[in-house]
Amino acid sequence: MAPTPTPTPSTSTSSTPVPETPAPPSARTAAPATAGSAPAPADGRLTGRARVVLAVLLVAQFMLAVDFSILNVALPALGDDLGFSLGNLQWVATAFALCAAGFTLFFGRIGDLVGRRRIFLVGLAVLGAASLAGGLATSPGVLLAARVAQGLATAAVTPAGLSLLTTSFPEGPLRQRALGLNGALMSAGFTTGAVLGGVLTDLLSWRWSFFVNVPVALAVLVVAPVVIKESRPAVRPRLDLPGAVTVTLGLLGVVYGLTQAGEAGWTDPRALAGLLAGAVLLAVFGLVERRVAAPLVPLAVLRRRTVAGGNVIGLLAFVTETSLVYLLTLYLQKTLGFSALAAGLSFGVLGAGTLIGGLLAPRVIARTSTLTALVAGGTVQVAGTAALLLLGPSTGWLGLLLPATFLGGVGNMLVIVGFMVTATSGLPDGEQGLATGLATMSQQIGITLGTPVMSAIVTATAGGAATGTTLLHGVTVAVAWNTALVAAGVLVAAVVLGRRNRGGTRTRTAGRVRPGPAAKER
């Protein structure tokens, strides 16, 4: 985005562009004095410096995505080596997920106030140190502390890096291209983590699932201060501490409840207590935001269809594709008898689909609209996921699984890029940390939410069976629910973002046509 918070003119060929709705007072007072880094030239081409900025930010985001899945295959070996009990082993994943999802919105806003580059660099330093400590851990306590630190670092670096990306490139084709590459590498990183975790554990040790982060973090820390400029607020407003505390504790409660439900079922007292406490605290957060002078999340921002609708779509996109990886892992290992490494390698086709989808998405948005990318991508993902309902108990069904996951990966990435563009468009630079914090929170919660929900469906349907056709039936039922959730995302995009305004013209987000006077944000 341009250095000043004034709206970028529409790229549409329609008549006179109409200015964006003015930002709320909190946004105006928090506007940064400088944008994230060297802006791209007006002719739409990337300069050498902009390319380096993009590469640095993408490498960091890719590393964070790898962290979400790299330990999945390594957990059994890690547990045996350090003496984790079977019941406590899930805390290796849960400790990370709690912090990564619970603190994302808080750190996203902190980045707006104290400087995004500062938060980005501090978070990367913590991530590198925590990864080194995790790799050297000799007891469960040390490893869990390292996972907590990794989660907190992820909650700081992800929204800071994404807001640096959105403020480094003006709204339009360049930002769409950057977000497309970012989405493709993040999704590919999630798939790569599953493969890399198996390879490192088999060939070296589970410890290298931690060590691999250290040289990457060091390289980014060396280059980033040179090419990325700080973004500091011109006026530093007071932090909404009551809002920060209630939303963070509320998200922690929800994520804890979801992870416990995935392990012990939806009737587990700890799961219900976590979900109830989280819901109450989030309701209190809503009341707090109505009363404070400088809210953490201005309600005017949440009333924007692009922000609210975009984040719902993003949540569903991450719930469905990441949980589908879990379901297909069950199918490949428990029904077909694949090894962990072979199952991980099978997802290389899905990774290729997400990479192609990420490269394709900016072109689709530029030639049509973000709404078209969301609806078309969701429809393609529905088709790819629904095809998996036909899977059978023999290896011959790989002929269906591989092209279906490739197709679903392409569609899912069109949706993810469309969601990122939609949820961060039309806002001034001072609100980009908030917007990217909300988008990252949707991503983290979606990743955390999907597997427990699908695991509970499989368990309830399969009656506890761990192998064979009974488990396959449970996986098939969960795939059907997964397909329905993807279809729900398409419906949200078509209804919320595509509805006609009172003037009779269709609202298009972020790509072609900006809302006119009759298209007020509702």
Descriptive account of the structure:
It is a single chain. With 522 residues, this protein is mainly α. It has helices at 25-29, 48-69, 75-82, 91-102, 104-114, 116-136, 140-168, 173-203, 208-211, 213-227, 241-264, 269-291, 299-302, 305-335, 340-346, 348-367, 370-387, 398-423, 432-462, 468-497. Helix content is 71%, strand content 0%. Helix 2 (48-69) crosses helix 8 (173-203) and helix 8 (173-203) crosses helix 18 (398-423).
Helices and strands in order:
Layout lengths: L24 H5 L18 H22 L5 H8 L8 H12 L1 H11 L1 H21 L3 H29 L4 H31 L4 H4 L1 H15 L13 H24 L4 H23 L7 H4 L2 H31 L4 H7 L1 H20 L2 H18 L10 H26 L8 H31 L5 H30 L25
Short account of what is shown:
This protein has helices at residues 25-29, 48-69, 75-82, 91-102, 104-114, 116-136, 140-168, 173-203, 208-211, 213-227, 241-264, 269-291, 299-302, 305-335, 340-346, 348-367, 370-387, 398-423, 432-462, 468-497. It is globular. It is built from 20 helices and no strands.
Task: List the keywords.
522 residues; mainly alpha; 20 helices
Proportion of helical residues:
over 70%
Largest sheet: none
SSE series: HHHHHHHHHHHHHHHHHHHH
How much strand?
under 5%
